[in-house]
Specification:
This protein is an all-alpha fold. The protein folds into two domains: 1-88, no CATH class; 92-159, no CATH class. The protein is 70% helix and 0% strand. The protein contains nine helices and no strands. The protein has helices at 14-17, 20-23, 28-40, 45-54, 57-79, 84-88, 92-107, 112-134, 146-158. Helix 3 crosses helix 5 (57-79). The radius of gyration is 20 Å and the shape is globular.
Length: 159
């Protein structure tokens, strides 16, 4: 039987945080087994929750990325618009930030900073989406937000 590997490593130094051998390598086996574990628990909410909490959140994020990639590929082939990820760019960072916050809540890890990060990320996504909707070709033109006007004036001064 393989030795028990906790869902997240105990890291005590900044150098340890960047060490692939400590942060990713011990969890590759979780990545390989994750699809089978999800299929086995597919119709049992508590079992799915246990799979989610017992899987390293970075590994689950990798799996989420691999799940989304073929969806973007198929949609881009159908629509002949090959920048589908760009359309979701205001949502994807929030999806991952909320994933980490939810995982931390369920795993009993302190979440104050993650909650703040998720909140700011959600606010950014909502404001970016609302700006994209207001400036899309399907809606009438509107004035740019003041921050964009100031940024344009500042950038124009450099050129």
């Amino acid at each position: 039987m393989a030795p028990f590997v906790p869902a997240i490593p105990l890291l005590t130094t900044a150098a340890a945080c960047g060490d692939y051998g400590l942060t990713v390598a011990p969890y590759i086996a979780q990545f390989q087994k994750l699809p089978y574990r999800i299929l086995d628990a597919a119709f049992n909410f508590n079992a799915l929750k246990e799979v989610y909490v017992s899987t390293n959140p970075l590994i689950f994020g990798f799996a989420l990325s691999l799940f989304l990639a073929p969806i973007f590929l198929v949609v881009s082939e159908i629509t002949r618009n090959y920048s589908q990820v760009d359309r979701c760019w205001s949502l994807l960072p929030t999806l991952y930030n909320v994933h980490y916050a939810v995982w931390a809540h369920l795993a009993g890890v302190p979440t104050q900073r993650l909650n703040g990060l998720a909140l700011v990320s959600v606010l950014w996504s909502v404001s970016d989406l609302s700006w994209n909707v207001r400036t899309s070709p399907l809606t009438p033109a509107v004035d740019a937000p003041i921050i964009q006007l100031l940024a344009q004036r500042w950038i124009h001064g450099w050129f």
